[in-house]
Amino acid sequence: MPIQRLAACAAAVLIAAPAAAQAPPAQLPARVQQAASEQLARQAASAGLVAPLFDVEVVRSSRPVADCRQPVAIEAVDTRQAARMRFAAVCPGADGWRHEFVVRASVTALVLVSAAEVPAARVLEAADVKLERRDVSAVADSIGTPQAALGLAAKRQLRAGELLRSGQLAAPPLVKRGDAVRIVARREQVEVSMAGEALDAAAHGAPLRVRSANGSVIRARVTGAGTVEPVDLPAPTQSPP
Questions:
Q1: pLDDT digits (tens, 9 = 90+) for 207-229
Q2: Residue 25 burial (C-beta neighbours within 10 Å; 0-12, 13-18, 19+)
Q3: Exposure string (b/e) for 94-123, b if CB count within 10 Å is 16 or more?
Q4: Mean of all residue pLDDT scores within the chain
């Protein structure tokens, strides 16, 4: 079976094809190839891949396939890994049969890569990234648009030309360990603030420990640059009747 290269838009048209049709055994590999391409197109759309392309090949089998008097259905058995998917051709009825096919495929898409070496903890800027077509068959968290990465910081040093993954990036810390912070506690119409010192580094919304001016250590979360709020506020005092 020759390798079939399909754009996502072309594969989307194939999705409308009937799921079962009567066909001689010699045509089953082509139908399996079509079903695999449709499955890859759905997975690519779900993952938000940009301009995906698929190479799909059905592995030849020496096992003979008998004729079927009923329409043969093509079913997906295992599509978790594009490099090795399994599909089954099913002939219904009392004298029916089931024949499995192995499909090997690869997926490429336009994804973000580092344009140059990026030091760890540095916030990404437009000049740090570029779009390239790469094989993402085994990559679940590739990034398809610059907007999804700009403003985030690299968790580790990135090599030039390295494919960027969302797991490699994180929101930059707004508060660093040792920073002077303002602890602001709000309840209803009352606001109380005091000075403190961050004992951890944390991004917006992340928890950290803060030593207040009176020396006590509290758990807080970052609300802005140099500003935190206590995580556990005491419950309001009930006034006696």
A1: 999 999 899 999 999 998 899 99
A2: middle
A3: eeeeebebbbbbbbbbbbbbbbeebeeeee
A4: 87
Identify the CATH number of the domain defined by range 180-230.
2.30.30.760
- Euclidean distance between CA atoms 29 and 27, whole angstroms: 6
With a pLDDT cut of 90, the percent of the chain lying above it is 68
Which amino acid belongs to residue 187?
Answer: R
**β strands within 79-187, DSSP E:** 85-91, 97-114, 129-135, 153-154, 169-170, 180-187
CATH class of 109-170: alpha beta
- Convert 63-82 to b/e letters by CB count within 10 Å (16 or more is b): eebeebeeebbbeeeebeeb
What is the tens place of the pLDDT at every residue in 59-80? 988 888 889 989 999 999 999 9
Alpha helices (runs of H) in the chain, residue ranges in sequence order:
8-14, 28-47
Pairing of strands 180-187, 227-230: parallel
**Cα–chain-centroid distance for residue 66?**
41
Please give the Cα distance from 10 to 39 (Å, whole number).
13
